[in-house]
Q: What sequence folds into this?
């Protein structure tokens, strides 16, 4: 069951990143996506030397956005490998992001199950009058509310952004360790 949920989340991730214009980590590195080129320049500088290949300059990104995106993705993959160990906060953010992404991946199924349980509980309550079915209906209604109002793409995006920030911070830390 866990593999099915993870597969649904991973399949959804591609669509989310397409909607977001790329992974949150990549968008933080892209010159074209920044409102503050000075901050982007500082970020590139902090990461300089961590990925084997230099990150694209603003001019390179402008001249060939597809190549720049591929270079960013290669650098991000390298940063993930460099930071896989010894960064517990990064691991926690990655787990949170994966959990939220996977929950969104099964949201449709969860809404269907919660809706069906609510209908069944209401019917059984009407037929039997047993208070236990009122509790079942309340729990099902609460589940519907959580899955429909909380488990959203924005909820996943917040976790993805937090992970991206931690990955870049951990990578900058690795740069300092390499330089020392």
A:
């Amino acid at each position: 069951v866990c593999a099915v949920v993870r597969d649904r989340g991973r399949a959804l991730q591609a669509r989310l990143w397409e909607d977001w214009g790329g992974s949150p980590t990549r968008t933080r590195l892209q010159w074209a996506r920044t409102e503050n080129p000075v901050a982007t320049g500082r970020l590139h500088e902090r990461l300089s030397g961590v990925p084997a290949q230099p990150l694209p300059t603003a001019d390179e990104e402008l001249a060939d956005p597809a190549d720049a995106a591929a270079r960013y993705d290669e650098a991000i993959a390298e940063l993930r490998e460099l930071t896989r160990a010894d960064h517990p906060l990064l691991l926690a953010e990655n787990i949170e992001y994966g959990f939220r992404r996977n929950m969104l991946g099964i949201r449709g199924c969860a809404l269907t199950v919660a809706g069906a349980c609510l209908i069944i509980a209401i019917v059984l309550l009407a037929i039997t009058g047993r208070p236990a079915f009122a509790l079942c209906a309340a729990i099902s209604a609460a589940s519907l509310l959580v899955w429909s109002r909380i488990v959203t793409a924005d909820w996943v995006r917040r976790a993805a952004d937090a992970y991206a920030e931690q990955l870049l911070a951990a990578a900058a830390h690795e740069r300092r360790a390499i330089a020392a």
User: Anything to note?
Assistant: DSSP finds nine helices and no strands in the chain. The CA atoms of residues 104 and 161 lie 16 Å apart. The radius of gyration is 22 Å.
